[in-house]
Amino acid sequence: MGSYTVIADAGRALVQLLRREMVPEIIPNEDGIGLASPADRGDLTLCIHLYDMSESEDFRLSGMVSDGVDRQKFPPVYLTLSYLITAFSASDVKFRSEEEHRILGKVVQVLRDFPVFDPETMEFGTGGGRDGIRMEMKKMEMEEKLKVWTFPNLAHRLSLYYKLGPVPLESARTKGIQRVKGVEFRADYT
C-alpha cells in the first residue's frame, strides 16, 4: 500500500519510465522530461502535469484493515490521478509539429507497452500482478480537453490525457483491538 508519498512516487515513476524508453532516441537528454505544468515548463520537451486527483468511483473499501495482532488501520482511500502530457519542440517552425507528433506517438507506445504501475516496487511494467494499477488514455470530448487546458497566455496544444488508478493511499489512523482469548459455550435444555 502507499503512504502519503504515493502520488509523488507515481509521478516520479512515470517520468523514469518515459526517460528510460525515450532518451536519447526521441528526446536528447533526461532533463527534457519532467513533472511540470505546460505554463511552467522551462526547458522541458515533455511535460507531465497532474491536473486532477479524485477518489476512485470504481474501488472503495469500508472495513478496517489488519495491522498486526493488536491493531487495525482505517481503510485506504483509492485515488484516480489524471495527467496531461504535452510535447514542446524547440525545432524550426517547419518541423516543430512533426517532431511533437513523433514525441507524443512514442509516449502512447510506451504507455501501451508498460501500462501497469506496481505500488510495491514503484515502477511501471507490463502487468501480470493482481495489485497493478492501470494507466489508461482518457476518453474525452474536445470541450472537456479545452476546460483542462486553462493556462493563460498559452495557446491550446495537442496533448495526451491519461488516468492512473485506483492508487491506494493508506490511512495513518489506527485503533487498538483485543483478540478473543477464550470462548465459552452453554446449552440450556429445559
Helix content: 10-25%
Total helices: the number is 3
Strand order of the largest sheet: 1-2-5-9-8-6-7
Mean pLDDT across the residues is 90
Shape summary? elongated
Largest sheet: 7 strands, mixed
Task: List how many beta strands DSSP finds.
Answer: 10
Rg: 22 Å
Compact description:
The protein has helices at residues 6-22, 93-113, 142-148, and strands at 33-35, 46-55, 65-66, 71-73, 77-87, 116-118, 123-125, 133-137, 159-169, 174-176.
Helix and strand topology:
Blueprint: H1 6-22, E1 33-35, E2 46-55, E3 65-66, E4 71-73, E5 77-87, H2 93-113, E6 116-118, E7 123-125, E8 133-137, H3 142-148, E9 159-169, E10 174-176
Parallel strand pairs: 1-2
Antiparallel strand pairs: 2-5, 3-4, 4-10, 5-9, 6-7, 6-8, 8-9
Give a written overview of the molecule.
The chain is an alpha+beta fold. It has one domain (6-176). The protein contains 3 helices and 10 strands; from the N terminus they run H-E-E-E-E-E-H-E-E-E-H-E-E.
